[in-house]
């Protein structure tokens, strides 16, 4: 049950610790003016599973979107188990190529959406990004999940669980940020 729902015990513990961080304002979130958001930018560690999938879901929903990883190699393809799980959910990651933080170019109206509290802290510490609004994607999951544990290299069942959670959260973003719509 732990492996399929949380990935690992560490994933469960990090999720449990993330709730008080979110509740007490310790998540390094920077709330945007929804009317100013023009593009949703998804962020994770490697940009080969979570943020890549979130970008694909957002693009399919007709949103302006991008994604990058905090520690990856630009040009790296999506993780094969993520490609397979995404395909089973009706999304295509086969053409995705990772983008490293160093190669990301912020645009006016960007909203950064991270998968973990520690990623928000990293974004807040970056001089080039600290002024951008940033939130946890898991705020739109149901139930709220302030930690979407990295499925890379974990149980295939957790990969599907994680991507389903991301899919639901992204689908809820559509109405929250209408300025990010392509048309």
From TrEMBL:
Keywords: Hydrolase, Protein phosphatase. Its EC number is 3.1.3.48. It comes from the Bacteria. SUPFAM superfamilies: Phosphotyrosine protein phosphatases I. GO terms for molecular function: protein tyrosine phosphatase activity. InterPro entries: LMW_PTPase, Ptyr_pPase, Ptyr_pPase_sf, Tyr_phospatase_low_mol_wt. The active site is at 44 (nucleophile), 50, 150 (proton donor). It catalyses: O-phospho-L-tyrosyl-[protein] + H2O = L-tyrosyl-[protein] + phosphate. Residues 38-176 form the Phosphotyrosine protein phosphatase I domain. It is an enzyme of class 3 (hydrolase). Belongs to the low molecular weight phosphotyrosine protein phosphatase family. This is protein-tyrosine-phosphatase.
């Amino acid at each position: 049950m732990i492996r399929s729902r949380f990935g690992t015990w560490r994933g469960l513990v990090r999720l449990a610790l993330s709730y008080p961080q979110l509740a007490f304002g310790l998540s390094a979130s920077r709330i945007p003016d929804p009317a100013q958001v023009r593009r949703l930018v998804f962020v994770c560690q490697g940009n080969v599973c979570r943020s890549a999938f979130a970008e694909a879901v957002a693009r399919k929903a007709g949103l302006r979107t991008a994604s990058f990883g905090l520690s990856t190699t630009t040009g790296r393809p999506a993780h094969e188990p993520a490609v397979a799980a995404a395909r089973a959910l009706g999304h295509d990651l086969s053409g995705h190529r990772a983008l490293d933080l160093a190669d990301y170019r912020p645009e006016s109206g960007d909203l950064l959406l991270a998968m973990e509290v520690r990623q928000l802290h990293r974004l807040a510490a970056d001089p080039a990004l600290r002024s951008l609004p940033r939130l946890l994607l898991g705020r739109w999951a149901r139930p709220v999940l302030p930690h979407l544990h990295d499925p890379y290299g974990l149980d295939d069942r957790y990969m599907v669980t994680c991507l389903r959670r991301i899919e639901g959260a992204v689908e809820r973003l559509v109405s929250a940020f209408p300025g990010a719509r392509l048309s």
